[in-house]
Automatic annotation (TrEMBL):
Keywords: Carbohydrate metabolism, Cytoplasm, Isomerase, Magnesium, Metal-binding, Xylose metabolism. It comes from the Bacteria. Belongs to the xylose isomerase family. It is found in: Cytoplasm. It catalyses: alpha-D-xylose = alpha-D-xylulofuranose. The active site is at residues 101, 104. This is Xylose isomerase. Its cofactor is Mg(2+). The keyword Isomerase applies. Mg(2+) 1 binds at residues 232, 268, 296, 339. One of its GO terms (molecular function) is xylose isomerase activity. It comes from Ruegeria atlantica. Mg(2+) 2 binds at residues 268, 271, 307, 309. The lineage of its organism: Bacteria, Pseudomonadati, Pseudomonadota, Alphaproteobacteria, Rhodobacterales.
């Protein structure tokens, strides 16, 4: 039985690059083999429950613009209707995965006991739909930033009762994720930071956040959850400063609290931009440290200073992101979650499908370009050539020498090296051949 919300919209098919059908894939062919693996298995697409179904189209200057049959999201009947429509969309798109926060899938009850009851009820319902459809859960997480109880943080809150509520909430969401066979569990600390240092004991807050994450890892092993624990960097918004600023900051945090072998990163394109980085930078940093877990694919408007969460449409950016993912060995438990939302004026059901079709096609184009660059080997050869000098015995010996020994060699050999070109423009032009 269908809801009628997507009335008249058929399952999206791959029609090839010449297609002009906005409801067809031009580049995403799930069965196409790329570097020995199906395209679907490389990309591991997921729909974000929050932006696609929970968001009502409001912004800081205006109220909701989407009039969905499951709005307002204040009872279990509407929560189940939302789940019905979500799984209809997954079928239309052929999406293998989805992701959720607890607050996306159940109504807020105001107290933990009722939140737990409704979470268990709706995840039982979702589990039945997963079994019938074959759609899987990429990851679950807890929304610990929207409700007023979280205004001073969750694990970093100055009130120990809020810390306790956060711990209970995360336990419930981990249990639900485990029950549904989720392949990851994500923590994003939207309020884990500060508005002003005038009322903030940063050391205490960081220590509490580190202990909280250790508790999460301990509970993962206690219940036998086989998925990955991921943290998601973001520099600002809503807090003035968030402790999980970027990939490098998170990696330092994980090492400080002994979690570097237990926790990986869920990286978002929009968050990378807010941190002053490119998406490829964040992915490369995580990959270099063996901490690349999963990605949230979207984009920001470069004319805006905030997280606009638009669907991706820049093939060169996406191609370089997947290039570093493929170089790191590709996803294991992670995937490509569309943490992206429609514009407030895009109010039709068809807009929701078209947006995902476009995003999936851009990712497919990017993946194919990335794979072609890897098969060609031009970038790898350029790197090998640039660092070739370090392969000599003299260069390697320096890494185990002292400054006095190296200085003596410079004097003895009369070293006065000439700089060599970084060949950046050649490499940029090389990338443009593939995108």
């Amino acid at each position: 039985m269908t809801s009628g919300f997507f009335q008249g919209i058929e399952e999206v098919q791959f029609e090839g690059e010449d297609s002009k059908n906005p409801l067809a894939f031009r580049h995403y062919n799930p069965d196409e083999i790329i570097l020995g693996k199906r395209m679907e298995d490389h990309l591991r697409f997921a729909v974000a429950w929050w932006h696609s179904f929970a968001w009502e189209g409001g912004d800081p200057f205006g109220g909701p613009t989407f009039e969905r049959p499951w709005h307002p999201q204040d009872d279990m009947g509407r929560a189940k209707m939302k789940a019905d429509i979500a799984f209809e969309m997954f079928q239309i798109l052929g999406q293998p995965y989805f992701c959720w926060h607890d607050a996306d899938i159940r109504p807020e009850q105001g107290n933990f006991a009722d939140n737990l009851r409704t979470l268990n009820e709706i995840t039982d319902y979702i589990g039945e739909k997963m079994q019938a459809s074959g759609t899987k859960l990429l990851w679950g997480t807890a929304n610990m930033f929207s409700h007023r109880r979280w205004m001073g943080g969750a694990s970093t809150n100055s009130d120990p009762d809020v810390f306790a509520f956060a711990a209970a909430t995360v336990k419930s969401c981990m249990d639900a994720t485990h029950k549904l066979g989720g392949e990851n569990y994500v923590l994003w600390g939207g309020r884990e930071g500060y508005e002003t240092l005038l009322n903030t004991d940063m050391k205490t807050e960081l220590d509490h956040m580190g202990r909280f994450l250790n508790m999460v890892v301990e509970y993962k092993h206690k219940i036998g959850f086989k998925g990955a624990i991921l943290v998601e960097p973001k520099p600002q918004e809503p807090s003035k400063h968030q402790y999980d600023f970027d990939a490098a900051t998170c990696i330092g945090f994980l090492r400080k609290y002994g979690l570097e072998n237990e926790v990986k990163l869920n990286l978002e394109q929009g968050h990378a931009i807010l941190a002053g980085h490119s998406f490829e930078h964040e992915i490369a940093v995580a990959a270099a440290e063996g901490m690349l877990g999963s990605i949230d694919m979207n984009r920001n408007d470069y004319q805006s200073g905030w997280d606009t969460d638009q669907f991706p449409n820049n093939t060169p950016e996406v191609a370089l992101a997947y290039y570093h993912i493929l170089k790191a060995g590709g996803f294991t438990t992670g995937g490509t979650n569309f943490d992206a939302k429609l514009r407030r004026q895009s109010i039709d059901a068809e807009d929701l499908i078209v947006a995902h079709v476009g995003g999936m096609d851009i990712c497919a184009r990017g993946l194919k370009a990335a794979a072609a660059m890897i098969e060609d080997g031009g970038l790898e050869q350029a790197l090998a050539d640039r660092y070739a000098g370090w392969n000599t015995p003299e260069a390697q010996a320096m890494l185990t020498s002292g400054l006095d020994e190296i200085a003596a060699r410079v004097l003895a050999e009369g070293l006065n090296p000439d700089p060599r070109s970084g060949r950046q423009e050649i490499l940029e032009n090389y990338v443009n051949r593939f995108v």
